[in-house]
Amino acid sequence: MTPVSAPPNRFERPSALTFLFYVLALAFIVWSFNNVGVSIPRLVDGLPNIGRILGQMFPPDPSRLGPISLALLETFQMAVVGTALGVVISLPLAILASRSLSPHPIIQHATRSLISLFRTVPDLVWALFFVIAVGLGPVAGTLAIMLDTIGFCGRFFAESMEETDKGPREALTALGASRTGTVFSAVVPQAMPSFINTSLFSLEKATRSSVILGLVGAGGIGIELKVAMDLFLYDLAAAIIIAIFLLVLVVEHVSSWLRTKII
Amino acid sequence: MPWEGASMTNNETSPFAPGHPDRAASGAPSSTAQAGPETEVGLDLAVEGLRKSFDGKKAILDGISLAVPRGQAVAIIGSNGAGKSTFLRCCMRLIEPDSGRIALLGENIDHMPRRRLRRVRSQVGFVFQRHNLVSRLSALSNVIHGAQAHHSGPCYWHQALAPKAVREQAMHCLDRVGLAHLARQRVDSLSGGQSQRVAIARALMQRPRFVIADEPVASLDPSAGEEVMEMFAELMRSDGITFVFTSHHLDHAISYADRLIGLRQGRLELDGLAKAQDIAVLREIYE
Ligand SMILES: Nc1ncnc2c1ncn2[C@@H]1O[C@H](COP(=O)(O)OP(=O)(O)OP(=O)(O)O)[C@@H](O)[C@H]1O
Ligand SMILES: [Mg+2]
User: Fold this and answer.
1) Is residue A171 within 8 angstroms of chain B, CB to CB?
2) Which of A230, B31, B227, B276 would bridge with B2, disulfide CB 3.0–4.6 Å?
3) Domains in chain A and their CATH numbers?
4) What's B168's domain CATH number?
5) Distance from CA of A9 to the nearest CA of B (A)
6) What is the CA(B284)–ligand 1 centre distance, in A?
């Protein structure tokens, strides 16, 4: 027995507080299962239904291909316009929210909080809000996407600007350039690849959410899907789902191709 | 003392001397100056009792006083960590000193508001060890950035937006450093020596009265370093620009400077005519 080299205990004895935390967490999980009502019999009972719906989905119904394509185009255009507006607004907000570029810490924290608010409230909630404010249709969806984009791009634009090399900005400061001048001449050009990257990601994200926003009447193809499902037209729903799948796939591919081109 | 001729005691030339409250504004030499030929043209840099410590304990600059008359070329030498870069940055208030007084181009900048400080800085070029250019932009755009010393607005952010006269002036500056043919090239595709020349062209674009350079050729290989340093010093001399640079190359310091300043552990240890120095002795101390 050499106490110096004896290995430590396999498990640290938890403190009373830690122990209490574990017990509470476990209790909460058990309670949650109970409340949600997930059970094996429920799942087994549901299986035939799932099979029946899938069966009715095939073959998909191509008869409404024209209207579906138009709705799909509108969906994508919502995504494009929402992202474009969001990116343009994100840039100044990101500058104000960035630690090293912000004119004042109070402004920095205020902008940062605003951006967090846009990011943490789900886009569907923004869409509901705008449907009430500006009425049903793509404008509501576009505005929701814009806010969601600001939440995403605002944060990542700010971070990428903070990560750029400080040297060029110091050089411009030393020669007496204005704060705005140093930001737009030295910081923004250096962060540009990252801006483009983030914006493309944002467009992919926006394309996916623009599909969902239709469910609450904020424009786009979502409403078509909801109607088809509500009327039990599962074959039509299948055609819509395939169309959505193709759109998202194409956008993701084009955007990753653009990324490799630019960076 | 071999360097007596160039050394200047501060009470002779100080712009902070009592009885001259408006000296900073007028830029005129102090009338109490005892008529050395250099002092009559005024001081472009005057530092008194400069102290700086980053951690509050170890003084990186430990009470430095120095005066540089207009048109002089001064080399600052010292081993790694002697405080050379910190000193140069403090002179521009890129780093705030803890105490001491600094007059740049005859203006006391100690508590100067940002806007006025910018106006003083605009007449002082600063060339860094790393070129500190915006590497994703063209050489021409980077030189045009130098015009932000005197103008502001989107016109000076990128060469494509710049007015014709500014682009031509920038081309002239590039021409002076021998790089007009690379104007369109992005900086990240240039060699180290070429990048440093672009940085010098950017400083020329300011039409500076005074240029500070922090080891401008330390990142270059010896032959490129020699070439760039020679060109740099010659441009400064021909334009009559006051030139303060740091260097690890004692031979550069001796051949391109009129006056040599030695820093050791934040103190001024040597101040004298460059020609009067014995390189062997210096080498022992500073290399
Ligand atoms: N921002 C900083 N924070 C803390 N310490 C610093 C900072 N900048 C410099 N120092 C310290 O100050 C001392 C002097 O640094 P400085 O860069 O001025 O030396 P130098 O003479 O330029 O050296 P070199 O020849 O290596 O460039 C060093 O010990 C360095 O660690
Ligand atoms: Mg240094």
Assistant:
1) yes
2) B276
3) 65-262 (1.10.3720.10)
4) 3.40.50.300
5) 41
6) 21
A174: nearest CB among B121, B150, B154:
B121
Q: What ipTM was predicted for this assembly?
A: 0.82
Counting one residue from chain A and one from chain B, the pairs whose CB atoms sit within 8 A come to: 80
Task: Tell whether ligand 1 has an atom less than 6 A from the beta carbon of residue B262.
Answer: no
Is the torsion defined by CA of B172, B173, B179, B182 positive or negative? negative
In a domain, B156, yes or no: yes
DSSP bridge pairs for B271: B261
SS in 3 state form for B161-216? HCCHHHHHHHHHHHHHCCCHHHCCCEHHHCCHHHHHHHHHHHHHHCCCCEEEEECC
Give the domain extent around B184.
73-93+119-286
Kindly state if the Cβ of B60 falls inside 6 Å of ligand 1. yes
Q: Which ligand is nearest to the CA of B53?
A: 1
Would B259 be classed as within a structural domain? yes
Helix, strand, or coil here: B137?
A: coil
Residue the block writes with tokens 């190359």? B249
Integer Cα distance of A145 and B34 in angstroms: 73
Listed residue (B147, B221, B139, B141) closest to B178, CA to CA? B139
The model carries a pTM of 0.81
Q: Atom 28 of ligand 1 has which residue's CA nearest to it?
A: B81
Mean pLDDT, 10 residues at a time, chain B of 287 residues: 40 45 38 38 88 89 92 92 92 92 92 91 94 94 96 93 95 95 94 94 95 92 91 94 92 90 89 80 72
Nearest atom within ligand 1 for CA of residue B82 = 21
Classify residue B95 as left (phi > 0), alpha (psi -120 to 50) or beta.
beta
Distance of CA B52 to the CA centre of its chain: 19
User: Which tokens go with B75?
Assistant: 């080399």
Asked if A175 reaches chain B (Cβ–Cβ under 8 Å), the answer is yes
Put simply, whether A194 touches B (Cβ < 8 Å) is no
Q: B24 lies in a domain? A: no
How close B79 comes to chain A (CA, Å)? 23
With CA atoms as reference, the chain B residue closest to A191 would be: B136
The contacts of residue B228 (CB under 8 Å, 6+ apart) are B193, B196, B197, B200, B216, B217, B220
What's the full length of chain A, in residues? 263
Residue B10 within any structural domain of the chain: no
Cα–Cα distance, A78 to A225 (Å, whole number): 17
